[in-house]
Write a structure and sequence with these properties.
Layout: E1 4-5, H1 20-58, H2 62-90, H3 92-111, H4 116-144, H5 148-179, H6 184-203, H7 218-241, H8 246-266, H9 276-280, H10 282-312, H11 317-323, H12 325-346, H13 348-366, H14 375-378, H15 380-401, H16 410-445, H17 451-483, E2 487-488
Parallel strand pairs: 1-2
Helix pairs in contact: 1-2, 1-4, 1-5, 1-6, 2-3, 2-4, 2-7, 2-16, 3-4, 3-6, 4-16, 5-11, 5-12, 5-15, 7-8, 7-16, 10-15, 10-16, 10-17, 12-13, 12-15, 13-15, 13-17, 16-17
Length: about 500
């Protein structure tokens, strides 16, 4: 099967694609962007590992613990589209640097936190500046690499970083918590940010505004920010309060209504926050769906498999992190080969659908775990399959998500990737947690009370979530197979991004 090539306008990056110096500099830009992306992605799981130690140190209760996670998710998820558009309007370099500095400052405050409120405020700050940083990083990548061969390699490496960051966060969080302090799970971001900041200042061209001063769609901004806040918060409420709780229903329904209102507003304003042409394109729409579905299913890997290894198999936090490394290796291998080797030959539809099916097989393998099953026989093969499947699908989706966009829309198109992943993760958190809890309750209530029943009930909750995650990936393969055209994504338009 040969995929057709979708044509698009290409502009060379600053310095000319033919000059060896500029060619080398572009790969240094990729390194800078990868470091920043890794910092944002691993921050979710690194804090999860450190949270019990932080709770013991600061003395807050179990009911308050969720706000350390939710505070970040709410700020990050609700402000992503605004952050993406700001990078389009006021310069990706400026937004990237501000995001780096702000994220580092918020991390320093979190590491030095002496109260629960101070820690939550720092996490909210990380979310705010992460919403500036993440879209700017992907959009800078989009407009830097427009030559097809280089673009495939660059997006493969970036996709590997994005996909493997969660697992790396587990390892790094376990090591820092066990060998140093939970506070270093926050302080470590200062190292990442400092390296990326130096690279950004030296390598990226300063933004110059041409023509009229850019305008921001304030009605759309307020509406979509409130909508995303309501949706993310509603799903977090569903996890703790239940799906029928008045607060859950109010936020979910209110968020859906505001999202519909946002779509209506965007068809009528002169300078829309999210031009609907970005999501209406089938290649980009399919890419956003891919990341959304992946966000739902990946929650089961990192949460329930971590619970199983630590609570059932009695792994330490650092051993748990090491146990995830084969998945990281699989992601790196497939992310760096699928865009350059498979994508030109079979097209994005086949690569993404195939990746989902391979990941579904990995999830099915995990449904065979028990109280005393071995890592090599029951966990390792599944992690390898999950890494290979999700890495290939994610790297191709990242490339398709910004396919053919004009450079002035690259930021908001990139923000849609992060928004899709964040909303998908919120749904996965609430939905799979509810399903797992119900499975455990049903098992315990139908068996004789005792420690063995409770332990087996936990296994039942994990395997049930793995079945549902596998079904989610199969559904993703079907949806992408039906909706996504099998065309190699055209690159976005380039613009000068390298400093002279």
């Amino acid at each position: 099967m040969t995929a057709t090539l979708e044509t698009g306008t290409q502009r060379p990056a600053a310095g000319g694609t033919g000059r060896r110096g500029s060619h080398a500099l572009r790969w240094w830009v990729l390194a800078v962007l990868g470091i920043a992306q890794l910092m944002v992605v691993l921050d979710a799981t690194i804090v999860n590992i450190a949270l019990p130690a932080a709770q013991a140190d600061l003395g807050f209760g179990d009911a308050d613990r969720q706000w350390v996670i939710t505070g970040y998710a709410l700020a990050f998820g609700s402000l992503l589209l605004l952050g993406g558009r700001l990078s389009d309007l006021f310069g990706r370099r400026n937004t990237f640097i501000i995001g780096l500095i702000g994220f580092a400052v918020a991390s320093a405050v979190g590491g030095a936190a002496t109260t629960f409120e101070m820690l939550v405020a720092a996490r909210v700050g990380q979310g705010v500046f992460g919403a500036l940083l993440a879209p700017a990083a992907l959009s800078l990548l989009t407009v830097t690499f427009t030559e097809p061969g280089e673009r495939a390699k660059a997006f493969g490496i970036f996709g590997a970083v994005a996909g493997a960051g969660g697992a790396i966060g587990l390892l790094l969080g376990g090591a820092l918590t066990e060998w140093a302090s939970w506070r270093w799970a926050m302080y470590v971001n200062l190292i990442f940010a400092a390296v990326a900041l130096v690279g950004a200042v030296l390598l990226l061209a300063k933004h110059t505004t041409m023509g009229a001063r850019p305008k921001l769609d304030w009605p759309g901004t307020v509406t979509v920010t409130a909508a995303l806040f309501g949706i993310v918060y509603g799903f977090s409420q569903a996890e703790t309060e239940g799906w029928t709780a008045p607060s859950t229903l109010a936020f979910l329904i209110g968020g859906a209504v505001l999202l519909a209102a946002f779509a209506w507003i965007e068809t009528r304003v002169a300078h829309p926050l999210l031009p609907l042409r970005i999501v209406a394109d089938r290649t980009r729409g399919g890419a956003y769906l891919t990341v959304f579905i992946m966000g739902i299913g990946m929650f089961a890997i990192f949460l329930f498999l971590t619970y199983y290894m630590q609570l059932t198999l009695q792994y330490s936090p650092i051993v748990t992190g090491v146990a995830f490394l084969p998945m990281v290796a699989g992601m790196v291998a497939s992310s760096t080969t699928a865009p350059s080797l498979l994508l030109p030959r079979v097209g994005p539809k086949v690569v993404i659908s195939g990746g989902f099916l391979v990941a579904a097989a990995g999830m099915l393998w995990l449904t065979r775990i028990g109280l005393d099953t071995g890592y090599v026989t029951h966990i390792l093969p599944a992690l390898i399959l999950l890494g290979l499947g999700l890495g290939g699908a994610m790297s191709v989706a990242f490339q398709g998500a910004t396919a053919g966009v004009q450079h002035e829309d690259a930021g908001v198109a990139s923000a849609m990737v992060n928004t899709s992943q964040q909303v998908g993760g919120s749904i996965g958190t609430a939905l799979l947690s509810t399903i797992a809890a119900s499975a455990m309750t049903d098992y315990v209530s139908s068996h004789q009370p005792g420690p063995l029943t409770m332990a087996q009930g936990a296994i039942e909750s994990y395997t049930t979530s793995f079945w549902w995650a596998s079904a989610t990936f199969v559904l993703g393969a079907i949806v992408i197979g039906v909706l996504m055209p099998n065309k190699v994504p055209a690159p976005a338009e380039g613009e000068p991004v390298l400093a002279h």
